[in-house]
């Protein structure tokens, strides 16, 4: 099973590397007030952010559990983010998605980078859900009781309409 997980992680790493480009990034958000983002390759990334993305991708298919904070127990959205940042970047984040948002620096229209956190209004309250931006208009998160840790698109679908903000935790 561990070998399979390593192979999946390798395949995802190669897929993400192959998807990198220097052309214009697609518009990530359907909201007209948010301008198009510049190419991600033009924004230098902190090496810890790369570790966050790679570590998070290794958690795909882990189960969801409200209040869960580790792979054995399962994850909720903030538990997954806290676990990933702690393990991959030695950065302590704790609390709800809204609590975690207060610690980061807002990301402007030109600054969204892999490893940044993205926040959504999913329960009719601000910052009620959090995920990790992995690049190319996609993010990884622990969605709900009916799901597992997975990647989603920011450009279309249910989450695209509920995006609120992005924040960074790296310089």
What does this structure look like?
- With 171 residues, the chain is an alpha+beta fold.
- It contains four helices and eight strands; from the N terminus they run ααββααββββββ.
- The strands form two sheets. Strands 3-8-4-5-6-7 form a six-stranded antiparallel beta sheet, with helices on one face. It has a two-stranded antiparallel sheet with strand order 1-2.
- Helix 2 crosses helix 3.
Structural class per helix/strand content? alpha+beta
Query: Order of helices and strands, N to C?
Result: HHEEHHEEEEEE
Compute the average pLDDT.
80
- Contiguous helical run count: 4
- Beta-sheet strand percentage? 15-25%
Number of strand segments? 8
Q: Could you estimate the helical fraction of the residues in percent?
A: 25-40%
- Across the major sheet, the strand order is 3-8-4-5-6-7
Low-confidence stretches: 1-39
Largest sheet: 6 strands, antiparallel
**Morphology:** globular
- What integer value in Å does the Rg equal? 15 Å
Describe the structure in brief.
This protein is an alpha+beta fold. It has helices at residues 2-19, 47-57, 77-89, 97-103, and strands at 69-70, 74-75, 105-106, 117-120, 129-135, 138-141, 150-153, 163-168. The protein has a six-stranded antiparallel beta sheet, covered by helices on one side. A two-stranded antiparallel sheet has the order 1-2.
Question: What's the SSE blueprint?
Answer:
Layout: H1 2-19, H2 47-57, E1 69-70, E2 74-75, H3 77-89, H4 97-103, E3 105-106, E4 117-120, E5 129-135, E6 138-141, E7 150-153, E8 163-168
Antiparallel strand pairs: 1-2, 3-8, 4-5, 4-8, 5-6, 6-7
